[in-house]
Amino acid sequence: MVSEVLSGLLVKILESKGKTRDFVLREFDKKLFRAIVENNPKRRPRRVQEYKYFMLMSMLWSVLRNIDRGIISHEYLKRAVQTLVNGALLGNKEQEDANRKFKEQYGTAPPAFVVISPTMACNLHCKGCYAASHSGARFNLSYSIVKRILQEIHDFWGARFAVISGGEPMMYKSDGKTILDIFNEFSDMFFLMYTNGTLIDEEKARRMAALGNITPAISVEGYEKETDERRGKGVYKKVLQAFENLRKYGVPFGVSITATRHNAELLIEPEFYDFYFDEQGISYMWIFQYMPIGRGIDTQLMPTPEQRLKMLERWEVCLKEERRFVADFWNSGIVSDGCIAYGRPGGYLYIDWNGNIMPCVFVPYYVDNIKEIFAAGKTINDALFSEFFKKGREWQLRYGYEYGAQPGNWFMPCSIRDHYDNFKRHIASMVKPEDENAKVALEDPSYHKAMVEYDEK
Ligand code: SF4
Hints:
It is a single chain. This protein has about 450 residues and is α/β, with parallel strands linked by helices. Helix content is about 50%, strand content about 10%. It contains 18 helices and 13 strands. The strands form three sheets. The protein has a nine-stranded mixed sheet with strand order 9-8-7-6-5-2-1-10-11. Strands 3-4 form a two-stranded antiparallel sheet. Strands 12-13 form a two-stranded antiparallel sheet. α8 (about 200-210) links the parallel β5 (about 190-195) and β6 (about 215-220). α2 (about 20-40) packs antiparallel against α3, α3 (about 45-70) crosses α12 (about 305-320) and α8 (about 200-210) crosses α10 (about 235-250). The longest helix is centred in the N-terminal third of the chain and has 23 residues, at about 45-70. The protein is globular and about 60 Å long. Bound molecules: iron/sulfur cluster. GO terms for molecular function: catalytic activity; iron-sulfur cluster binding; metal ion binding. This is Radical SAM protein. It comes from candidate division WOR-3 bacterium. InterPro entries: Aldolase_TIM, Elp3/MiaA/NifB-like_rSAM, rSAM, rSAM_sf. Keywords: Iron, Iron-sulfur, Metal-binding, S-adenosyl-L-methionine.
């Protein structure tokens, strides 16, 4: 939790201009560095703390640049300060109370957020979709279930942040409500929504601006050629139109990219970042290195270890020199003290369109189902203490979360991709696969071999 002094300064920075802002910004910068790097309460390695400091400052710089360009509206900013800054980032009394109560009851701190995919339906049919979504998919979580999940994490965990994924969330409909109605209902929470962007027309962008508690992360695969190749002809043009609509109404947005062996080289070119940050006005970029799950599993698509290293070097330049807010999953595992899955303190869990509760979007296995949990009179907290989740958290602790000064290699943080043998032997016993693809992967010896070979390289 950032201190009250820092939170006060941050609000001032976002609300001021010119020399006043420069002055407050310098003060904030110094104090943030002291709090994270010098004071370092958990005694993490200094380099780990430096990454965290650069990450936070690059987030701030990316937003400030877009405020100055006039593509984040004042109306949006006012709302976002209330929700994202005062709620999701800094915390308030209500959240502290929830956190304390949770610790008293369970002897550990709660997770910070959930990722929910309320629908499997999607208007596209992308190659290698991690969710294997398509337009014919009809699986949906009902509005009342989505609402109850969010209400519980809000009340029991003090959470003020949630991620919506899919399927395509803009296709979600239940009881006459859409995903924007959810955002409206939880106006003191902030939402990040992964979307293909093709359904963000002017009216949707205008509504998002008025809501002020949602930022869309739009999927691209590179430029037009790479995006249309995977997502379908004409998709990239629609994405650029969505960018324009969001700029027009002042909604900050980002892009989300799957890094594969084929596009990894593109992601280390400086021009790529110039184009999206400077020309298109994104406020953040999430890079997800391909995870062999979902439709058309292919372990050979994972970026090679050499490419992964080059991407790490490029990420450092983005943060430290260009001050651009980029997260590269999994190279950026260092800023979250490693893997954040399995409902770890400050981490998250994932719930799909069937209600299955998974440790992570990229770990397609489960034990509990939220609809069954609610029907049995239990709460989301009960799902945190399955053997599956407990074993995952135990591994996280052993791998370094517990050992402040001497963690494992957090550049290889992933419980499933970077440590597959351990995952299969020690974490994933007695689990159910989310779908047929996950079942095949778990049972296939050649998949096991390919994953282990990758980890050992
Ligand atoms: S399991 Fe892997 S992808 Fe999921 S949170 Fe952990 S490190 Fe990230």
